[in-house]
């Protein structure tokens, strides 16, 4: 969960991952 949140909350928008990458993140896949 920590990794998922870290990727969502990057200050610089260019450092953030895409929504597609977030939807395929292990955290979401394991908790469906």
Write the layout of secondary structure elements.
Elements: H1 2-8, H2 19-23, H3 26-30
Organism: Nymphaea colorata (pocket water lily)
Domain Protein kinase: 1-28
Protein name: Protein kinase domain-containing protein
Q: What fraction of residues sit in β-strands?
A: under 5%
Enumerate the spans where pLDDT stays under 50 for 5 or more consecutive residues.
none
Helix and strand run: HHH
> What is the average per-residue confidence, as pLDDT, rounded to a whole number?
94
- The total strand number stands at 0
The helix-and-strand class reads mainly alpha
User: Per the principal axes of the C-alpha atoms, what is the gross shape?
Assistant: flat
Main pleated sheet = none
- How many discrete structural domains? 1
Distance between the termini: 13 Å
- Figure out the total of helices: 3
> What Rg do the Cα atoms give?
9 Å
Helical fraction: 40-55%
Please tell me about this protein's structure.
The protein has 32 residues and is an all-alpha fold. It has one domain. It is 53% helix and 0% strand. The protein has 3 helices and no strands. The model has no long low-confidence stretch (mean pLDDT 94). One of its GO terms (molecular function) is ATP binding. InterPro entries: Kinase-like_dom_sf, Prot_kinase_dom. It comes from Nymphaea colorata.
């Amino acid at each position: 969960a920590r990794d998922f949140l870290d990727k969502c909350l990057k200050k610089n928008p260019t450092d953030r991952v895409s929504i597609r990458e977030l939807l395929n993140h292990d955290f979401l896949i394991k908790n469906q």
